[in-house]
Amino acid sequence: MNLPEDVVKKLKDVNVASAHDFLNCSVSTLVQRCGLNCDQVMKMKRNVFKETFEALKLRPETIFESDLAFGSLKGNHLYEFYGGPGTGKTQLCLYLAARISHVEPNGKVLYLDTKNDLSYGRLKAFAQSEEQSFGNVLVSKVFDIHQAIQLTLKLCEENQESPSISILILDNITSLILPIVDEDEVTDIFSHIGELIGNLKEISSRQNCPVIMTNNAIKNGTCPALGKFLENAADVQFSIQHDQEEVGSRLLKLCYGPYQFLQEPFLQFTISKTNIQVKK
User: What is the dihedral of CA 119, 78, 88, 163, to 10 degrees?
Assistant: First the structure.
């Protein structure tokens, strides 16, 4: 890893000896263990991620692999999927919820719906088998950030003896934040968002599960919405964009900073109400 010597020493002291170890650690864990601030950790992660991407072979298409519970989605990580209108953010979340519900029948799939556009009918359209019942999928309608904070705080305090969480999906965080942008002071907005993100990361850490949040996009889909309010919040970002060369196709790209995409490899796929088809 091309990092300062004092940082490398701190990392080795907590058994983080390779780029793979470093990238697998969440931002919050690195901040706590190494005494670094969030911005420092994120910059280092982006640099290491970019340098070692090919060696690690962390490919977007592994998200859709059916032989793994989460593909490349790792526990103790907060993921952000952002894209413009109609790019398929919710459909992708429904697909992942259905697949993980099928692969992990003894775990809970928690889906926080902020737009009131999710129904079990839509979810069942992605059923992995005719027998799949979705009994382990719990859907909560969450319409303001205060409600989301209270709900996620309750999940943080949940008894460890209850069924473990396989994945938590928050679709869409933009719907929670936009209403308070024009009403609250900037410091209050940052405070509310920080509390919510902190809860999501606490759940991810305690349950060792991936947490996904979707976000809108600006600048023709090249940059996540909400600007600095969500900057450095996610451990890993994916951009979903319309394929300009093929009508109906989408591109899923890994990001290492605003407007910065790893051009190769990217994933091309089509999405419908019942399926996601990866193009080889």
Answer: -30
Closest CA to 201 of 75, 117, 45: 75
| φ, ψ (nearest 5 deg) of residue 171 | -130, 100
**DSSP label at residue 64:** G
**Residues 145 and 176: beta-carbon distance below 8 Å:** yes
Mind giving me the DSSP string for 202-223?
HHHHHHT-EEEEEE-EETTTTE
Token digits of residue 16: 């983080």
| Spatial CA neighbour of 148 closest among 113, 100, 109 | 113
Model confidence, pTM: 0.77
Structure tokens at 141: 């309608």
Number of neighbours of residue 257 by Cβ within 10 angstroms: 14
Q: Which residues of 167-191 are buried (b: 16+ CB within 10 A; e: fewer)?
A: bbbbbbbbbbbeebeeeeeeeebee
Amino acid in position 211: V
Residue 108 pairs with which residues in a beta bridge?
A: 165
Instruction: Return the DSSP state at 95.
Output: H
Alpha-carbon distance of 69 to 61, in angstroms, equals 14
Q: Which pLDDT tens digit goes with each residue over 129-156?
A: 777 888 899 999 999 999 999 999 999 8
Structure tokens at 77: 């990580």
